[in-house]
Amino acid sequence: MWAPPEVLVLEDDGEQLRTLRELVERAHLEPLATSTPRQAMARLEGRRPILAIIDLDMSRVPASERRVGVDDVLRRLHHRHVNCIPLVYSAGVESIDDQARVYLLHPHALFQSKRHGEERLLERVNGLLGGRVGDLALQDGVVVHLPSGEPMPHRVAVSLVTAKRANRPLLLSESDARAARRFQRWLQACDSSVLVRALGNRHYQLAVRED
Amino acid sequence: MNSPIRTVLVISRRPHAWALLRDRLDPTLVSVDWRDPDALRSLGGCPPPWALAGDLPTVPPTSLRHWRGRPVAVHWVGSPPPGLPARPRLHADWRELAAALARGLQARLAGLRLAPLHGLLLPGGRFLRQTESLEVLLSVHPEGLELTGTGSALLATARRVRRILERAGVPVELEVAGASLRLREKGDVGAP
């Protein structure tokens, strides 16, 4: 049975957490919804989310739960979930110093200011989860070759499309690299404008053909 | 830094230059990293970045030694410190430096150009990977690069670049003069 790719959501505001969870569900992906960093660390155990939507402001978290912080979650994502793209949104990422502090925890974090409102955050998440790469699109949690309508419901294919939207390559295990090669064969069979590129050192990235 | 992504490494005490370059350079082509000079030792053993940018008159003396003789485009604002891996290109301010890097990312020679994040695109859209040294020289064309290391590291770099050019099959050759490396389109005799 096909399991949809997962998205970690860490938000201490219950209403906003519900909104984000629904957004992820609408994209037919599996939300790992958490309201404290401790919960987030626990949910990450044995999981491989492709995206993490993280609120830096955890002021609603009870004092008894604060032994683990957002910094720990970001560090863990950087060291153990290298293919997960963190989207950090907060009122506290306005200044360069704030962003640099997050950068030192996770150098590939993307930023979204709370000042621009929830709409912009949702647009940003949609852009990552629902955007197109060449003639491919993420639809209902699977990669679809738009001209033929052929679906490719594999986690690695979804991760590659999401990573391309964030200008990142993926570092793949041997079995995931095999899945990437299968994806490449599928792209060729569909006569897609997109190809899977091996960059060396087990790094892979999607590219759009230019011929 | 072990990822194959093309990277500009910013060395400065404060993160503002990192943020400026991150916002101005095309993220589909390059990633921008930042290190405080005191944290440079952690890079020992890492491959060199595509470009190094800084604004400090001194860096810890041995911190960049491991990249000597290897091609890195160095761009600097103000007086450069000793021990950089190549003669730096000097800029009046960070905006000028950012513009120079942006031009380097768009460089073309005989149909060669930088592919997104890593590698080169050849005429006809063909992709060539693991081309880091040629990517650096392409970005500083036509001026070229004067390395501070000499001897075996320089020779190894020149051999590597020539091998990549051979794989690419493009009419470009490497010119070596002392510690300077420069690409030249074959048959081009009028270059500066």
Commentary on this structure:
The complex is a heterodimer of chains A (211) and B (192). Chain A has two domains: 124 residues, Response regulator (Rossmann fold, 3-Layer(aba) Sandwich); 77 residues, Arc Repressor Mutant, subunit A. Chain A is built from seven helices and twelve strands. In chain A, β3, α3 and β4 form a beta-alpha-beta unit. The radius of gyration of chain A is 17 Å and the shape is globular. Chain A is α/β, with parallel strands linked by helices and 211 residues long. In chain B, the strands form three sheets. A five-stranded parallel sheet of chain B has the order 2-1-3-4-5. Chain B has a four-stranded antiparallel sheet with strand order 6-7-8-9, with helices on one face. In chain B, β1, α1 and β2 form a beta-alpha-beta unit. The longest helix of chain B is centred in the C-terminal third of the chain and has 17 residues. Chain B is globular. The N and C termini of chain B lie far apart (34 Å). The model of chain B has no long low-confidence stretch (mean pLDDT 91). Classes of the chains: A alpha/beta (211), B alpha/beta (192).
Features:
heterodimer, A: about 210 residues, alpha/beta, Rossmann fold, Arc Repressor Mutant, subunit A, 5-stranded parallel beta sheet, 4-stranded antiparallel beta sheet, 7 helices, about 25% strand, globular, B: about 190 residues, 4 helices, 12 strands, about 25% helix
